[in-house]
Amino acid sequence: MPATSANLGPGFDVLGLALALHNEVTLEEAAGISVSIEGEGADHLDRGERNLVVRGVRSVYERLGRPFRGVRIACVNRIPTGRGLGSSAAAWLGGIVGANALLGGPLDRDTLLALAAGGEGHPDNAAAALLGGLTVACWSGRKVLALSLPVPAEIQWVVLIPEVQGSTAEARAVLPQTVSRADAVFNLQRLGLLLAALGAGRADLLTVAMEDRLHQPYRGGLFPWMERVAAAAGSAGSLGCALSGAGPSLLAAVGKGADNVARAMESALRESGIRGRAVVLGVDPVGTVWEAA
Ligand code: HSE
Asked: Does 125 sit in the ligand 1 pocket, CB within 6 Å?
């Protein structure tokens, strides 16, 4: 399952980008629950009923009305947790796709996506992690309609990952229940422009197309260094920069000179008193892959 960066600025709870950084999950049926975790989150992730891979497995058994007796799970995690890079969507999907395969594949892709999005509460990371590429996801009743679009290869993606963790629940709690029509229109225009610009290969439009007024202005209080780092990315030549999902990571789109942008973002973060690293990541065009043992 790939890491994912949701929103890309204006596409709050809609857009997701799958990145070439992956978690791996191995599953087998067992009596009782056992979970081993290597890598990211090994020091703090739950290894029992509350583990998200376990919850994903259980959701498939429940959906199918099958008795759940237990599962043995081994996780190799490379996606940092609590950073707005879709580690929980990857965990849900690991359990859901794995359990479906263990049971002979009775659920179709749309049902797997609805289960993962339901577990998460929003569909953007789950769609990108399942389908790969740049995804547009939309709840319609209990279904999630999702499409994966190609991403221009000439755009490079820099992800700044602060050492501090963020909480999605907290980053959603600071958002207002209602927004002005002017702000809604501002985002609609940019979301349309972003998709059109990516489709037409007009990277020059991304600076405006990645602006947002629905979530980032409210989340700035949680991540006070965000504006400074985004400005540093812009001065170093990035085309556009946005909070990755609910933060604290930032995603920058770059035409040329991704390494320079990465170093500039790291320096600006450090000058704000926070440690972190910036990495250049390719897009994962495939999404979640299941391999039989
Ligand atoms: N769209 C969600 C949010 C993503 O911004 O809260 C959370 O990972």
From this structure: yes
Task: Characterize the bridge pairing of strands 143-149 and 134-140.
Answer: antiparallel
Does the CB atom of residue 246 touch ligand 1 within 6 A?
yes
In sequence order, the 6+-apart residues with CB closer than 8 A to the CB of 93 are 1, 56, 112, 116, 126, 129, 130, 288
Tally Cβ neighbours within 10 Å of residue 177: 4
Distance CA 289, CA 117 (A): 18
- What does the block give as tokens for 279? 């990495």
SS3 label, residue 172 = helix
Q: Is the minimum distance from the CB of 175 to ligand 1 under 6 angstroms?
A: no
pLDDT tens, 222-259? 999 999 999 999 999 999 999 999 999 999 999 999 99
Q: What is the DSSP string of 121-162?
A: SSSHHHHHHHH-SEEEEEEETTEEEEEEE---TT-EEEEEEE
pTM of the model: 0.96
Distance CA 93, CA 115 (A): 9
Contact between 160 and 272 under an 8 Å Cβ cutoff? The reply is no
Distance CA 172, CA 215 (A): 8
Going from the N-terminus, what domains does the chain have, and what CATH number goes with each? 2-149 (3.30.230.10), 156-281 (3.30.70.890)
- Residue nearest atom 8 of ligand 1, based on CA coordinates: 245
Res 112: pLDDT: 97
Q: Is the CB of 219 under 6 A from ligand 1?
A: no
Cα 71 to ligand 1 centroid, rounded to whole Å: 29
